[in-house]
Amino acid sequence: AFIGFLTAGDPDADSTVKFILEMEKAGADLIEIGIPFSDPTAEGVVIQEANIRSLSSGMTTDGVFEIVKRVREQSEIPLAFMTYVNPVFHYGYEKFFTKCEELGISAIIIPDVPYEEKTEVEAPAKAHGVKVISMIAPTSESRIRQIASEAEGFIYVVSSMGVTGVRSEITTDIGAMTAAAKSVSDVPCAVGFGISTPQQAAEMARHADGVIVGSAIVKLAAQYGRDAVQPIGAYVRSMKEAIG
Predict the structure, then answer these.
(1) pLDDT tens for each residue of 60-86
(2) Who's near 207: CB < 8 A, 6+ residues apart?
(3) Tell me, what DSSP letter sits at residue 197?
(4) Do residues 172 and 137 lie in contact, with contact meaning Cβ atoms separated by under 8 Å?
(5) Which one, out of 14, 84, 129, 227, has a CA that is 20 to 30 A from the CA of 65?
(6) Half-sphere exposure in the Cβ direction for 105 (13 Å, CA)
(7) How far is CA 181 from CA 1, 38, 51, 159, 163, in A?
(8) Count of helices and strands (H, E) across the chain
(9) Are 229 and 17 in contact, with CB atoms under 8 Å apart?
(10) pLDDT at 221 > cutoff 90
């Protein structure tokens, strides 16, 4: 599967709707929508700046829900939110996940909720049919099987140490990480963090069920602004072709 990420509201709501629909047309299987937050600790500079642009132009959590509503008028593509616990907590877990259910949001990724604390988010999410995605990182070694055994939706395999962002090479043994996860779980594994070229995508697809790309798409939105529809479509198409 090819999973694409973009930051909602960068450069504006109308563009985000167009980008999502174009990514689906180009072959994306699932799209992660970033709810902008002022302190996105897992993100590198590209997505940090996208968060700042989006918030500066007035994007809110309600605004993101409005974007999803507009997408849902034209598409049934699986959608997941990627954000931090602060915006969800302040919105109110029950209210937030009720809205997710109404709009057909399948899953949520919250990198700053530790495995040990996840039940706080998981219980209200589950009640509304939203899967909380588990992340395993190169530092998770002793806990990969424990985390994977409880995972649902898909397992987010973090390819590299540090934050999100384009990397020239990925040296982590992804095969070993996915093998450990798959030894205890049938949930698909998708690799993210640092993947930007078709070659990297093809390599990661040999070890996993999906490839996640964020910063490279967000870079195109930053470069072309409202005119990024065609470049994003062409990029997603090339990545999807690379992974077969």
Answers:
(1) 999 999 999 999 999 999 999 999 999
(2) 174, 175, 178, 191
(3) S
(4) no
(5) 227
(6) 31
(7) 18, 32, 31, 14, 22
(8) 11, 9
(9) no
(10) yes
